[in-house]
Amino acid sequence: VQLVESGGGSVQAGGSLKLSCAASGLILSSCGMGWYRQAPGKERELVSTISVVDGAISYGESVKGRFTISQDNAKNTLYLQMNNLKTEDTAVYYCSACYYWGQGTQVTVSS
Asked: Which of 15, 39, 80, 111 has the least CB density, counted as fewest CB within 10 Å?
């Protein structure tokens, strides 16, 4: 099983990035899946998830209204569209599916 994140980078506050998580060895639509992030010196926190039970989507309070999670079943890929980025969004972003984790992608937001 592999989850490979991409799309991270450096952006100014107010900008946008779109993260991708390409899965192999598992079928994303059969998994609970989501995005998490970890900033330096902080614990890993939930960004957004999609329930395997009913497809319900949830967001962390700090990203509601700015981030959008989506999936493309044909590409077996999970996405995270991040708009109106803030400096406090700076972190390593990880995707997770069926309890597997990707290696993470760095997002840096400067003021």
From this structure: 111
